Amino acid sequence: MACETTVKWFKKRGIPFREIVVYPNTEDELFLLKNVKHRFVPVVVVDGKILDGTKMWFEALEKEFLKK
């Protein structure tokens, strides 16, 4: 559910994104474990900054990356 909500959020705002399905024992899973310290998704990365899906990243994204 959270992943679908995240995709809808980006699409609604016309923000381009790349969706990655994380499979066990892959580089993507290793990235999560190394950089986020868990396997919970969604995890959003914008300009190299990780916005952890376990937090209110929607608010962080709007405040930090959609400023005008």
Produce the secondary structure layout:
Layout: H1 2-12, H2 27-35, E1 43-46, E2 49-52, H3 57-65
Antiparallel strand pairs: 1-2
Task: Walk me through what this model shows.
With 68 residues, the chain is α+β, with helices and mostly antiparallel strands. The chain has one domain: 3-Layer(aba) Sandwich (Glutaredoxin), CATH 3.40.30. The protein is built from three helices and two strands; from the N terminus they run ααββα. Strand 1 (43-46) and strand 2 form a beta hairpin.
Quickly give the structural class: alpha+beta
Give the beta-strand count: 2
Percent strand: 5-15%
> What is the element string, with H for helices and E for strands?
HHEEH
Rounded to the nearest angstrom, the distance between the terminal CA atoms is: 30 Å
Please describe the biggest sheet, giving its number of strands, its sense, and whether it closes into a barrel. 2 strands, antiparallel
Low-confidence stretches: none
What coarse outline follows from CA principal-axis ratios? Answer: globular
Average the pLDDT over all residues and give the rounded result.
Answer: 78
Briefly characterize the structure.
By secondary structure, this protein is an alpha+beta fold. It has helices at 2-12, 27-35, 57-65; strands at residues 43-46, 49-52. Strands 1-2 form a two-stranded antiparallel ribbon.
